[in-house]
Specification:
- By secondary structure, the protein is mainly α.
- The protein is built from four helices and no strands.
- Helix 1 runs antiparallel to helix 2 and helix 3 packs antiparallel against helix 4.
- The longest helix is centred in the middle third of the chain and has 27 residues.
């Protein structure tokens, strides 16, 4: 089995470590969020278990693969980040529309979360530096 050469190019190794730490730490946060008895309780449990948990598991697997030098980890990471962004946008907008309590604090937090997810998607979508210099052989 041939492994791709990711290396420390553009800090991909650091991004993978950071992503692994964030995803692992978010798992207990997800459990606390699901068990929290707040507004939109049924929607929170459904979204948490059906969408957020798979996105976090995808993130953990993708970042472990990237740390092991597997190229497919980038694709899996993009899928997990896209899923997380899609879920947080939909749920966040519904939350802001239906739950007036704490809206002033939740809105900037959601905006920051969306910005970080978009920047992560862009960072993982960029080719590694110098990748365009390598001449690829036709198959």
């Amino acid at each position: 089995m041939v492994r791709s050469q990711l290396g420390p190019v553009l800090g991909f190794h650091c991004l993978a470590k950071l992503g692994l730490i964030v995803n692992v730490l978010a798992l207990p946060g997800l459990l606390a969020w699901i068990l929290w008895d707040g507004p939109l309780r049924v929607a929170t449990v459904a979204v948490g278990l059906a969408a957020v948990l798979p996105a976090l598991v995808l993130g953990v697997v993708a970042n472990l693969a990237l740390l092991d030098g597997r190229g497919w980890g980038r694709v899996l990471n993009l899928v997990g980040l896209g899923l997380g962004l899609a879920v947080s946008l939909g749920y966040g907008i519904v939350w802001l529309a239906l739950v007036p309590a704490g809206r002033a604090a939740v809105a900037p937090g959601l905006g920051l979360l969306w910005l970080l997810q978009i920047l992560s998607l862009v960072a993982w979508s960029l080719p590694p530096a110098g990748d365009w210099l390598v001449k690829r052989q036709p198959r």
